[in-house]
Design a protein that fits this description.
globular, alpha/beta, Rossmann fold, eight-stranded mixed sheet, 387 residues
Length: 387
């Protein structure tokens, strides 16, 4: 049974209910010396507690998608590197599968499709599954020769791409905004940026480790550009993410302005972290640590010609850091923000801003302008830290 499967959830519910009932039936039937009976009854209580904890943990994980599989939870699965002689054949097979999947797709009227694909690029030597949303217009005759803008979307650490299809439902939001005339059709590519779970690589090219930034910022764009009708100019590509994914989106667009024109950070943070989840990412180099911090880059390097949208709730820990970032932006970079008065670091807060986020991205792509314009917040507050 999969960690997030319905069967496992039902099993946890049944076990959590059956364990107390069995304990009540067996309590008086436990035999042996007093010490043995005490230990046996203690064991029954412990089993009940563990099953209750398992049920709660399963419910929380199903709600927020912290872990997508048993291997993800136990840290035994990761995205592997490809040996050099396998890279090109694997990439070509993956590209052929993407093309075949698109040809087989038959979206219902007014709805796009979500395809599950695997990226096998040559640059980083990494591979990873992605979810690709193609709007309904992608399959319509009048758009047969149209190249579509693309947003690469990354969930926070440890993250699960399915969250953006289920709880956040980005395909429906994008379709609704296009139907309402507030946005133009675009492609969304949802990828889990946690390349080596449970390690948080902060989307960096790790010293003596995986080239995560190369994979996310360059390889995905390169492979999908060969298999889908995507825009080729930098303004036709954007990045978006929540929490760690928001940090990654803003950082990588600032590092790669020749490839991307805009980024969205949902409840992100803007100073690179080193803690027990990251380990040593930069080989002890203070320079590399600084260069992976968007706020430091604003304060010490020329600002790139990109646009960023930062969304945050005033009740989140990173609100002060978000304000500090907004205050530090200078031309040619442009910044907008959406401030939610009340909200937490969760999908409810992000759902409230996603429609306006899609509209904002469309304007960066060159699409129609919606009526809701993000409000720029500038207030001198101290920098904060990721929750």
């Amino acid at each position: 049974m999969g960690l997030t499967s319905r069967a496992f959830t039902i099993f946890c519910v049944v076990a959590a209910i059956a364990a107390p009932a069995a304990t009540m039936l067996l309590w008086a039937r436990v035999k042996g010396p007093a010490v043995v009976r005490g230990l046996q009854r203690l064991g029954l209580i412990v089993v009940c507690q563990l099953l209750a904890i398992a049920l709660v943990g399963t419910a929380v994980n199903n709600s927020f998608y912290f872990y997508s599989s048993w291997g993800d939870l136990l840290g035994t699965s990761h995205v592997g590197a490809l040996s050099s002689h396998d890279i090109l054949p694997a990439r070509r097979r993956a590209e052929a599968k993407i093309i075949a999947s698109v040809r087989r797709a038959h979206p219902s009227p007014g709805h796009g499709v979500v395809l599950s694909q695997t990226i096998h690029p040559a640059g980083s030597g990494l591979n990873a599954p992605v979810l690709v949303y193609l709007p309904p217009q992608y399959f319509q005759p009048r758009y047969a020769h149209t190249r579509f803008p693309v947003t690469i979307i990354m969930p926070g650490y440890p993250g699960n791409p399915k969250m953006y299809v289920t709880r956040l439902n980005i395909p429906k939001i994008m379709t609704d905004e296009v139907t309402a005339g507030r946005a133009r059709p675009s492609i969304a590519v949802i990828v889990k940026e946690t390349i080596l779970p449970p390690r948080d690589t902060e989307c960096a090219n790790v010293v003596h480790g995986p080239a995560v930034e190369t994979f996310l910022a360059r390889d995905i764009r390169s492979q999908l550009s060969r298999t889908l009708r995507t825009r080729t100019d930098r303004l036709g590509w954007a990045m978006m993410g929540d929490s760690t994914g928001g940090f990654c989106a803003v950082k990588m667009v600032m590092q790669n302005p020749q490839l991307y024109g805009s980024a969205v950070g949902l409840s992100g943070y803007y100073t690179a972290l080193l803690d027990n989840t990251t380990g040593s990412l930069y080989g002890g180099s203070r320079q590399l640590l600084d260069e992976n911090s968007p706020l430091w880059r604003l304060q010490h390097l020329p600002t790139p010609p990109v646009s960023v949208l930062l969304t945050i709730s005033k009740q989140e820990r990173t609100y002060p850091q978000t304000v500090a970032f907004v205050n530090a932006v200078t031309p040619p970079m442009r910044v907008s923000s959406i401030v939610v008065p009340v909200g937490g670091h969760n999908t409810r807060t992000w759902n409230a801003v996603l429609p306006r986020t899609v509209d904002w991205l469309s304007r960066q792509f060159g699409g129609s302008v919606g009526s809701a314009t993000p409000r720029v917040t500038r207030a001198p507050l101290a920098a904060g830290r990721r929750p």
